[in-house]
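The data are passed on as follows:
___
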Amino acid sequence: MSVITAPACTNALTTDNNAVSLLALTAQGLYCSQADLYIDPWAAVDRAIITHAHSDHARPGSKAYLCSTVCAPLLRMRLGEIQIETLAYGEALIHRGVKISLHPAGHILGAAQVRLEYQGEVWVVSGDYKTEPDPTCAFFEPIRCHGFVSEATFGLPIYHWPAQTEVFAQINQWWRANQAAGRASLLLGYALGKAQRLLAGLDPDIGPIVCHGAVEQMNQLYRAAGVALPATRYSGDLGRDFAWSQALIVAPPSAHGTTWSRRFGEVSAGMASGWMQIRGTRRRRSVDRGFVLSDHADWSGLLGAIAATGAEKIWVTHGYTAALARYLAELGYDTSIVPTRFEGEHTSDDIGEA
């Protein structure tokens, strides 16, 4: 097991001795020298491939972007008027001899794995991914390759997700109990991806569903992409006389405890995140209920996805990298750790989204 370090020189290609030169870590992030482009660069570059529209993967300032067709409206919403080229899932282009294609990552709407092929060598950069089915985005697609770059957000054996049906049943039951007690139900989930997945699992017959403006903005893009969501109401259209105690209000975590949330009267706050599996996280987040629902793969999901690639070389990034890389090395994989600028649990509404 080795650690890949970013050299000071912008396009230096020094990595560990066992890795091929198709990918390298530079001061701007992962770089493919043959195609002269970066994948989810940390800073502005000439050519960037973006795996998905969360802000720790989609940074502003680059001259040209490539992303999945479905991702493009989300990316424009985040970054404004930028130069974007798109590929449908499975479609390929040849750039400077490198065959590039994008494949579903199962993380959020439009999320893609990046497949790079050059002179018979195939590498896949997964971005963020989950292997559970999700009606709000394309399902994860395993891609055979020689080298695989995997996230490790929940790369510890303690992380094992309950069945989604159980989690949504818990949320709906919590909502009903709050109604009976005369409390509004404030459900916290990141505005892009998590909120829409939550909406798709709610029972709209229980009562009205209200959304924070940031969530409603993303709902519109999801609906435009053909994703079925229940009817929602924008919170800004509703006054204090609205029957908030009957409603379930979906909002980003940053909205909790603000003036915006105080107008709902008595509130029970719940948060949906993989971090809710750890004792004490709910208390740190100052919420009443925690629901274990993540848009990242759990431990078994990570191992299953990696095995399905058939890759011998595994680069591990973002999260519990050391633990996952050590375990993979014990299984016989050639593993390396790729540091990132976005390590650990973050407070932004979509950096470190889980």
Summary: Confidence is low (pLDDT under 50) at residues 7-20, 344-348. The CA atoms of residues 24 and 228 lie 40 Å apart. The chain has two domains: 2-159+295-338, 164-291. The longest strand covers residues 98-104.
